[in-house]
Write a structure and sequence with these properties.
By secondary structure, the chain is α/β, with parallel strands linked by helices. 27% of the residues lie in helices and 18% in strands.
Length: 490
């Protein structure tokens, strides 16, 4: 069994300590938090009258930096567990922690819960059929409340609008406090190297949130990076990441008329759809275009790849989003010109958030590796068993998949995701769940799918709650004892 501490430092590891750690006034922090110099009190913002805090500062001589003046930040809440990110992993973490008796605050940047399931219009959940717990519960809800297609797929093909409603209802029922439209912008570490607060920005302004334990379910590892954790990105000296994809919802065709092109029909559907697109003079950037029937006359379409885009570059993501949306409409327009069953094809919606496959992989107390997949790792502290294949989408427009890394797609055995891979190695009180856990490039291409994200989140949320109740740090717990403790309380 390999431990991440035994690996040589990678050239793709980064330390964000100085940039990410922010200090707050002693009145805002726990007693052992290092305090900044006391500042003059500022007026309290009034959200009803639309008051805002005034920001003061001065511009550097070269005009390239603005130095913001120190100000006090209001504490918006205090909880046992704070979960950053309301996607599949965050839902698992928030529900598990709340159901274990912890007070839970969930912070989400979008206007709904679900992440890639809803904001990203994913519509298909991979590697979920062998999962129990919250993942099985969600699939049951999606199937029962969705269409005949959802029922036949046992919830793995779902309606994003149904998912929004189900996730909100379950979290509210569990007592999770939800704040949408709120972006994490900083983390506060005390003198014991423990995360004690995070900072956010929203229409309510800049706010501080205190908690005893934190779970990073942001997908890109934003909280961990702000907390100063080391991480890896992509593969090779250029940190090349898998491409992003814009998904869309379509309407205007009869399911029976286009049955041969629908993904769930058979394994040749994507090949037929690509050939049809090429017949129309189209050259989709994603060479395995996928058309999926959701319900009535609504379909999901994935036919786009955006290469070489950093998940941390807002300009690049903006450019990719604009280009991707343009390509989706161009392809739909081209198919419509074919006439026949496609003559009324039209776009209902494109995703608000372009689909990001890869961001930071945070350094944890165990690193899942390609060798673990090859050997079919069995771990005594397994939180989930992953069965999804190694799936590296083309890394450039030429279809290349190897970039200073040798691998053969699909060579793997079902493997365990260990609890220590969810625990941040560089700070105390922080767990991760979803695609930002500790793993290498190849392993990540398998465990990143959302059927694994939910049980990872469930494990991290439960561990966070138990560690608060037992007054120990998450790394001091054994997953076997966590499960035993949880079962005894049920």
């Amino acid at each position: 069994m390999k431990n991440s501490h035994e690996q040589d430092p990678s050239r793709r590891e980064f330390l964000q300590a100085s940039a990410g750690v922010l200090m707050v006034s002693a009145s805002l922090a726990s007693p052992d938090t290092k305090a900044a110099n006391k500042s003059e009190p500022t007026r309290v913002a009034n959200p009803i009258s639309s008051d805002v805090f005034r920001t003061d500062g001065h511009l550097s001589i070269d005009g390239r930096r603005l130095v913001e003046a120190q100000r006090e930040i209001p504490v918006a809440g205090k909880s046992d567990v704070l979960v950053c990110g309301g996607g599949p992993a965050g839902i698992g973490a928030a529900l598990a922690a709340a159901r274990a008796g912890a007070s839970v605050q969930l912070i989400e940047v979008a206007g709904c819960l679900g992440g890639v399931w809803t904001v990203g219009l994913l519509t298909k959940i991979l590697d979920s059929e062998n999962k129990t717990g919250i993942m099985a519960e969600l699939l049951k809800e999606f199937a029962a409340r969705g269409s005949a297609v959802a029922a036949r797929s046992k919830g793995t093909v779902y309606d994003p609008e149904i998912a929004k409603l189900v996730l909100e209802e379950l979290c509210v029922k569990a007592g999770v406090k939800i704040q949408l439209h709120t972006r994490l912008v900083g983390a506060v570490i005390n003198q014991s190297n423990r995360v004690v607060a995070v900072l956010t920005e929203s229409k309510s302004g800049r706010q501080a949130w205190l908690a005893d334990r934190f779970v990073d379910c942001s997908g890109d590892g934003d909280l961990a990076a702000h907390a100063g954790c080391r991480f890896e990105v992509g593969v090779g000296s250029n940190c090349t990441c898998q491409p992003m994809s814009m998904l869309a919802l379509l309407t205007g065709v009869d399911p029976d008329a286009v049955r041969p092109f629908i993904r769930e029909t058979d394994g040749e559907a994507e090949r037929r759809l690509l050939k049809l697109m090429e017949t129309a003079g189209l050259n989709p950037s994603y060479r395995d275009p996928t058309l999926r029937h959701l319900h009535s006359g609504i379909y999901s379409l994935m036919t786009n790849h955006e290469y070489g885009v950093s998940a941390f570059d807002a300009d690049a993501i903006t450019e990719a989003t604009i280009h991707a949306r343009q390509e989706v409409h161009q392809i739909v327009g081209g198919l419509r010109k074919l006439g026949g069953p496609w003559k009324d094809l039209s776009v209902v919606a494109t995703a608000e958030q372009i689909g990001v496959r890869e961001g930071r992989r945070i350094r944890g107390r165990y690193t899942v590796t390609a060798q673990d997949l090859e050997e079919g790792l069995r771990h005594e502290q397994a939180v989930a068993r992953a069965t999804f294949q190694i799936d590296v989408h083309a890394l450039d427009t030429h279809g290349n998949k190897e970039s200073e890394t040798e691998f053969e797609e699909g060579v793997m055995k079902p493997y365990d995701i260990p609890y220590p891979s969810l625990i941040a190695a560089d700070v105390e009180g922080l767990l991760m769940a979803g695609r930002c856990i500790s793993g290498d490039f190849i392993a990540h291409s398998s465990y990143r799918v959302t059927g694994n994200a939910v049980p990872m989140g469930e494990a991290a949320g439960l561990a966070a709650a138990v560690s608060v109740q037992d007054n120990v740090m998450p790394y001091e717990l054994d997953w076997r004892e966590i499960r035993k403790s949880s079962a005894a309380k049920r």
